[in-house]
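haha ok so turns out i had the wrong file open the whole time. this is the CORRECT one, sorry everyone. sequence first:
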Amino acid sequence: MAVSDPIADMLTKIRNASQAKHEKVDISTSKMKLQIVKIMKNEGFIKNFKKITKDNLSYIRVYLKYDESQAPVIHGIERISTPGRRVYSGYKDMPRVYNGYGVVVVSSSTGIITGRKAAEAKVGGELICTIW
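then structure:
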């Protein structure tokens, strides 16, 4: 089945695996997905990730993170900009997710970065997703 929005598909797989308390989830690879997963790792939402190539197919294995009571660290993950409706923001209007507890992922001219780094660098861009 063809996927019209691969980023939303990736976010949904991570959200569903996290709610089902899976240890890991496999996602097909792209440069954008890899950057989003790196941001999730740096911000502490996932344990780790690994890029795996097997039988000429490459995918990203994401190891999910849970707290002491086995509740998922990712409380919510939401797509903002879709293929049918792109959402952009300047650095002055960069949204804050749950008063700074969450992260907004932005595709800017300097690459895929968090909203906090985009505001510090004074660059705007397309809002990809929010994670809290």
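Residues 38 and 69 are 25 Å apart (CA to CA).
again sry for the mixup
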